[in-house]
Amino acid sequence: MTSLHETAPPVILIAEDEEANRQMLLDMLRRDGYEILLAKDGEEAVNLFATVKVDLALLDVMMPGLTGFEVCRAIKVNPETRLVPVVLITGLGSANDRIEGIECGADDFLRKPIHREELSARVRSLLRLKQFTDELESAETVLFSLALSIEAKDPYTEGHCARLSKYSVELASALGLPEDLHVALRRAGVVHDVGKVAVPESILLKPGRLTPEERKIMEQHPIVGERICAPLRSFRQVLPIIRHHHEKLDGSGYPDGLKGDAIPITARIMTTVDVYDSLTTDRPYRSALSSEQAFSIIHEEVRRGWWDAHLVEELRKLIVKAGLKKLIDAFRINGAPLVTRPPEL
What we know:
Layout: E1 11-15, H1 19-30, E2 35-39, H2 42-51, E3 56-60, H3 68-77, E4 86-90, H4 95-103, E5 108-111, H5 116-153, H6 160-174, H7 179-191, H8 201-204, H9 212-218, H10 221-229, H11 239-244, H12 265-279, H13 291-303, H14 309-334
Parallel strand pairs: 1-2, 1-3, 3-4, 4-5
Helix pairs in contact: 2-3, 6-7, 6-12, 6-14, 13-14
């Protein structure tokens, strides 16, 4: 890992309404070689975050207008800045203030009067964690780019990853699954087929039926994908989805031939939306099927024991709801009467 100052110096934002305190913090941190931005109140701090990439924020709690708590909350609810470490500086000693700081997402606290050694040590520690986070995000970006480049090789799979992310998260939400599994499914929608990087294009893009030898190579891609993503600890819940999204409930899937509930619920969700999306998009050997035709085939495969009937039904409800919304929106735009009967699937 590179050191903190091997590239551009980290940018630290100081938000403090008292000029003497701003200057004191500036002098303390400047000695460590950081680039410093100064804000005289909370509103200016929020505006700076919107225009400059900040690596760490020091926020005085008691500022006119927006308090440090409010600025911290604004930073943490924004997906673009939520991972920026925030240190709240306070002269208050009440437990309630500390609890409020924790609830708004603060990463650390400093009590006034501030000692340079403590400030320097805490800033260094938080910036080191931020660097780990940045490197993790860079690794994820590389993986996502690789997965999308594989998708781009086949014109018939354009948008497939984005649709799988969207459908699988919506299905997980309808099932009441926890937020961490939503995140895993969103990521898995993008990288579920990243293992196809090891499949020759002659097999990957073959318009006809694969030979037994070619199928054996193709069926290794979930294992390869899991191996590629395994080093990322943040992908712990993504790995089972990658490995098992081609399993079938009767054990006839691959790569492990798992049966029933041995297949993780997240993998079954991904399988369900993958099958639906494959049937409703164009393929070299057939045109896209309608939702009605797709679910007719899927229900037949449920009877064979391949797919989870409950997940299929929940997905069908979501597709009906989405289709009805499109119809209503279209009729509203055109000024026509609303249709309230959902399309038959």
